[in-house]
Specification:
single chain, mainly alpha, Tetracycline Repressor, domain 2, two-stranded parallel ribbon, 8 helices, 6 strands, 7% strand, binds zinc ion
């Protein structure tokens, strides 16, 4: 180290054992340092290789054979008969993509807390933006042509712990609203058998099965690498829809009005804050249909 206390230092280190990386932050000569190196994980999540599915390294530095994501053995893909967890699933409703009404990507008009959205994905990403205080992102998401664009905009939002703790409840609220406002969705989940497992067949390990359609259908449910959180929420809402059909739709409206008022207060508060810190801001009104700010492609 030198006597100059800031700036970038380049260091040569011995190659790290396979699967290991240096911490992102450490203390060196009494100073807190940020450490960057090739093959280092991008965030603090557990790093998983998408080639061999072992943890601790990325695909870019993997020297192992390509493996099945379900059993982590080489020579086959998930859902092929060679996989020890192969089994054709009977009581599942797999879905993905904008053509399927069960998917959040399905284009439909949704009114959530008084804001109109073009899909459930738009509604979810917009709420994320608002709750994380990113009004620019919120207005861009509202203006986004399709759900994929809305999702991409949403991925750039810097989230906070509060959002992570409440996002599943937000998703459930949106799916419930979809079950009231989108008749085709309502019919589809209401007519499914009670034992049906809804499952989003995407590589997303949080909301989906973590597998493609073939892999999902032909793998035992308890071996799906993803948590299928969205499918679980739809199942829960489907149960409510069946009950609601019996005792009719009444109780929701009041609660929604209260929530709507609460959400508006947050929007107003953020607007005031923003106006105060950025006196000549333009085109950042999350309620406006079109935004003056630069478009995303
Ligand atoms: Zn690997
Ligand atoms: Zn396998």
């Amino acid at each position: 180290m030198t006597s100059i206390l800031n700036g970038t230092r380049f260091m040569y280190i011995e190659p790290l054992p396979a699967g290991e990386s240096l911490p992102k932050f450490n203390t060196c000569a009494g100073l807190r340092c940020k450490i960057l190196h090739f093959g280092q994980p991008k965030n603090n999540h557990i790093l998983q290789c998408t080639n061999c599915w072992k943890t601790g390294h990325t695909k870019s530095i993997c020297k192992n054979d390509s493996c099945c994501k379900v059993c982590q053995k080489p020579g086959h893909l998930p859902g092929q008969k060679e996989c020890p967890h192969y089994e054709v699933q009977k009581h599942i409703a797999p879905f993905s993509g904008s053509q399927d009404v069960l998917s959040n990507f399905y284009p439909c008009e949704l009114d959530i807390y008084g804001v109109k959205h073009k899909s459930a994905e738009h509604a979810f990403q917009y709420t994320k933006a608002i709750r994380c205080g990113d009004l620019d992102a919120a207005s861009k998401i509202t203006a986004a042509e399709d759900a994929l664009s809305a999702m991409r905009l949403g991925k750039k939002i810097k989230t906070n712990e509060q959002w992570n703790a409440t996002k599943e409840a937000v998703m459930e609220e949106i799916i419930e609203n979809k079950s009231v406002q989108v008749k085709l969705f309502q019919e589809k989940i209401r007519s499914a058998k009670q034992s049906t497992t809804f499952v989003e067949t995407t590589y997303n390990d949080e909301w989906g099965s973590g597998l493609d359609r073939t892999g999902t259908i032909n793998t035992k449910q308890d071996k799906w690498p993803g948590k299928n959180t969205l499918g679980t929420i739809i199942k829960k809402v489907a149960k409510k829809v069946r009950k609601r059909k019996l005792s009719d739709n009444a109780p929701k409206a009041q609660k929604q009005n209260r929530e709507q008022a609460k959400q508006r207060n947050i929007v107003d508060m953020l607007k005031t804050l923003r106006a105060a810190s950025d006196s000549d801001a333009s085109g950042c009104n999350p309620d406006s249909e079109s935004s003056e700010s630069e478009g995303e492609t």
